[in-house]
Automatic annotation (TrEMBL):
This is DUF3159 domain-containing protein. It comes from the Bacteria. The chain crosses the membrane at residues 39-62, 74-91, 111-133, 154-173, 179-202. It comes from Allosaccharopolyspora coralli. The keyword Membrane applies. InterPro entries: UCP010219. Keywords: Membrane, Transmembrane, Transmembrane helix.
Length: 219
């Protein structure tokens, strides 16, 4: 990337994208309940009930910790609810792999949502970043920024599809430990890669004279 383009990005802006989209902490937290589930299932002689209880306990501890650190209650509740629903499904069906059904379905729904958002010219990456930056819909009235967010949103579609390509065969093969490992590998490492690539796409898609995502150019 040229020095000219780099000089036009506000100081700290690359790091801010990671922070705005949840950062490392949220991604790592998301992998801990599934790890607790997989380890408890294995150590307890494949007891789905023990595994479910372990996952929910870890989820509760993380929820309290995140609330104390000032996380948004709604986001914490959604994360905890996903763990609880996954545990209930697994216990009801008696199949440990069904704990991961919620994550499989959420990734499928997210891929569809991001793709549709680009098609209707409301790219979700722009919606999220614009909301956090308190830009309302100003970012959408900037044609260059709207186009850049649309292109970068496809990177997020790819992230969710990668998980589905890995998760679905493992779920079909009834591989609990495989899904546990995949959850770890495809959480923070994949999120970090997705953020880095989407940030690169964003910057490359904007004209050289554009001041960046914090400064929509609205007539």
């Amino acid at each position: 990337m040229s020095a000219q383009r780099s000089s036009q990005v506000a100081p700290g802006e690359p790091e801010s994208l990671t922070t705005l989209l949840g950062g490392r902490t949220s991604a790592i937290d998301a992998s801990l309940p599934p790890v607790a589930f997989g380890l408890a299932w294995w150590l307890s002689g494949q007891s789905v009930l023990v595994a479910g209880v372990a996952a929910v306990l870890v989820g509760l501890i993380l929820a309290v910790w995140r609330l104390v650190r000032g996380a948004r209650p709604a986001a914490v509740l959604v994360s905890l609810l996903a763990v609880l629903v996954g545990a209930v499904i697994a216990v009801r069906t008696g199949q440990a792999v069904d704990f991961f059904l919620v994550r499989l379905l959420s990734n499928a729904a997210s891929a569809v949502a991001f793709a549709v958002s680009v098609a209707v010219r409301w790219p979700l990456l722009g919606v999220v970043v614009g909301t956090v930056l308190r830009q309302r819909t100003r970012w959408r009235r900037d044609p260059a920024l709207l186009r850049a967010y649309g292109r970068a949103s496809w990177v997020w579609v790819g992230q969710y599809l990668v998980r589905l390509v890995v998760f679905i065969p493992l779920w079909a093969a009834n591989s609990v430990l495989g899904l546990t490992v995949a959850q770890v590998v495809l959480t923070w490492p994949l999120v970090a890669l997705c953020i880095a690539v989407s940030w690169w796409v964003l910057r490359r898609s904007l004209p050289a004279e554009h001041p960046g995502i914090r400064h929509p150019q609205v007539d």
